[in-house]
Amino acid sequence: MTDLPFPRPRPVGSPAGAVGLPEGTSGLPDQFGRVARDLRVSVTDRCNLRCTYCMPAEGLPWLPKAEMLTDEELVRLVGIFVGLGVEQVRLTGGEPLLRRSLAEVVRAIAALTPRPRIAMTTNGVGLDRLAARLADAGLDRVNVSLDTVDPEEFAALTRRDRLRDVEAGLEAAAAAGLAPVKVNAVAMRGFNDDSVADLLQWCLDRGYELRFIEQMPLDAQHGWDAGTMVTADEVRLRLEKRFTLTELPAEDRGSAPAERFLVDGGPQTVGIIASVSKPFCQACDRVRLTADGQVRNCLFSRAETDLRTPLRDGASDAELAGLVQGEVWRKARGHGIGEPGFVQPDRPMSSIGG
Asked: In this predicted model, which residue has the larger pLDDT, 216 or 23?
């Protein structure tokens, strides 16, 4: 393992290919005034569920082990991002709990200086066994993906009968102090869109914070259809048939993607993320690192910069930092969904990381 903590890399000049990046630029700015401070790290592309909106029933070809970052490589790269001003690291997948060394990776990231906030997005299967260990290693909070609490709907959606395992994982996360425990849900027309209020009540009863996310064009099958997507406005209308939602001030949102509402006067809240219908690109502060060492400046980007090859060829931290800066500088103004020239990325969500 590379010695910890990692020092902040010294500012580097304009990386090759980063046209217009001012000489001596520090941090992770783009040319539209945004600054990346939130790093999403995919620690594996593998998953133990087969959600219909993510991948086919037979799964996908997984990355060969040799192409995936080792623990030492991953933590070194995260340290470089932290040195460039990243303040939060979110571990994703695939399913991050499938990386056997996950707790050790969390502990190493928590030892970085300055220490970033560490979060994780998971499907919750297996979290009951690992929540306490991850919290002890330095994980601060967790988001669990759960679209329905109806056992039959869950089995049909995920192609696995694991709802009770997810429920146990949520309970363990709360017991381990991984607060606030958040639940991420996608409403799908004709499937679970009629039960969004039931899911909210289920979360309220257990003290979990629910976030609805519009379905995005990131499925491996490329079957996403904007015409059938359940919009954020539709979700809100369905919730308001049972609950009184009071919108929280926009200034409280910052760069967070969710529009948040007090439920029946509070203090509990629900969030709705309108990634497609009301994109928040102008405030986006995210950058992504894939499990095979590619840095992506947008979830919907069709280009990425390889860090794994130069890292293994002996590149210095400053050289790697320059590559990261160049990729972030090239970030587009918006994701372009809905525009005539939009083309879905080749990589699905499971490969990019959420």
From this structure: 23
Is the entire prediction scored with pTM above 0.85? yes
- Whether 323 and 307 have beta carbons less than 8 Å apart is answered as yes
Q: Is residue 311 within 8 Å of 76, Cβ to Cβ? A: yes
Q: What one-character-per-residue DSSP string does 236-286 give?
A: HHHHTTTS-EEEPPGGGTTT-S-EEEEETTSS-EEEEE-TTTS--GGG--E
Q: What distance in Å separates the CA atoms of residue 300 and residue 314, rounded to the nearest whole number?
A: 30
Q: Which two tokens stand for residue 102?
A: 């996950």
Indicate the average pLDDT of the chain: 88
Distance CA 241, CA 150 (A): 20
Neighbours of 281 (CB within 10 A): 17
Which of the pair, 217 or 162, is modelled with greater confidence?
A: 162
Kindly state the percentage of the chain with pLDDT values over 90.
68
The kind and range of the H/E element at 128 are helix 127-137
Q: How far apart are the first and last CA of the chain?
A: 26
DSSP element (H, E) containing 29 = none
Q: List the domains of the chain with CATH numbers.
A: 38-352 (3.20.20.70)
Q: What is the pLDDT of residue 274?
A: 87
Single out the residue of 91, 121, 268 nearest to residue 186, CA to CA.
121
Sheet of 294-296, strand order = 245-247, 259-263, 269-273, 209-213, 182-185, 141-145, 117-122, 88-92, 38-42, 286-289, 294-296, 305-306
67 or 11, greater pLDDT: 67
Q: Which two tokens stand for residue 322?
A: 């320059």
Give Cα separations from 160 to 47, 117, 119, 157, 166 (angstroms). 12, 32, 25, 8, 11
Number of helices and strands in the chain (H, E) = 10, 12
Residue type, 232: A
Q: How far apart are CA 40 and CA 212, in angstroms?
A: 19
**For 267-286, what is each residue's pLDDT tens digit?**
999 999 988 888 778 889 99
Q: Would you state the pLDDT for residue 328?
A: 96
Averaged pLDDT, 134-152 = 97
- DSSP annotation of 66 reads G
